Amino acid sequence: MYVIIVGGGNVGYYLAKTLADERHEVLLLEKDRTRYRTISEELGELVMQGDGCEVAIQSQAGFGRADAVVAVTGSDDDNLVVCQMSKMEHNVPRTISRVNDPRNEKLFHELGIDATVSSTKIIYNLLEQEVGGGEVIPLAALNRGNIEIVEIEISARAPVLGHEIKQLQMPQEALIISVLRDDHAILPSGDTQLEAGDKIIVLVRADQEHSLRDIFAED
Amino acid sequence: MNIVVLGCGRVGSTFARMMHRDGHNVTVIDIQSEAFRRLGSKFRGNRIVGNGIDEDVLKRAGIETADVFVAATQGDNRNIMAAQIAQRVFKVERVIARIYDPVRADRYRQLGIVTLCTTTIASGLLRDFVTTNEWGLDKDYSAEYLRLNV
Prior knowledge:
heterodimer, A: alpha/beta, Rossmann fold, 5-stranded antiparallel sheet, 7 helices, 26% strand, B: 6-stranded parallel sheet, 6 strands
């Protein structure tokens, strides 16, 4: 896989190293000459100096044959334009953008970016799980974030312990697709009883995720 | 008209002053409050300090009721992103972005944003003047600018 990373800060630097170690073809683009010199001492030819928004630089860097372009600069506007220009000019199949302001995730999806990552949001989600006692862990987002797959661990003190799935007051647009129990994945029916230590995998509309927390969280 | 101008540099401030003098309701956003000095003493429009790609800042500037949004900061990408927020999120009817890079100006024009590329405009005018000894301008904008100060 040929991956082009735009932005040679810490995220870009370690991502380039990780991908190169996994034997992917990588190019890291860094605009700032001083930073470029620092990272190229270690990464050598993997790094190129230039502005990833400029079409001339994009052509030179081979955006046309890239399988993915990842924009990880510290500026959301730069990341957006890198990804949009990659699509418009070079039809790059997969564009991934780091998003510093988590509220930009929705906007970026609407503007055609294939995937976004917000470390702010990831850390926030982790904190929520720790403090809130809600055991809803997001696993994946489908359909541009409208639908999520989440994991919920059934604790020994969960109000639904011992209940059958058909007794649960699930939100209308939520579906339990699997119950993970002792290394087995069960395809559940309405009669499946929930036991302590079960992990249930739920497909749910993103805006209803919070009501899962109300059902499964400890009192 | 309700007009929101992002970026109080030379272009943003002059445009804001012109529109304010012509009786429009103008709000200017800049990340640095010192930039508002360029508006001079006669400007009675609103000044908002903040980041123009932040939806909360744009709301404070009244973008929800704006008829026109002009993005004229020093950063092409900032202008491009702000223009897309104005167009897609706030459905502003007329959105214009100043973009220095001619390639980006062309591509985003194709995406439906009105882009003003001062690089191609200035170099085109220069080329015409050097080859024909005539300015391709109908109006004397610099005379208009000088009148703003009177």
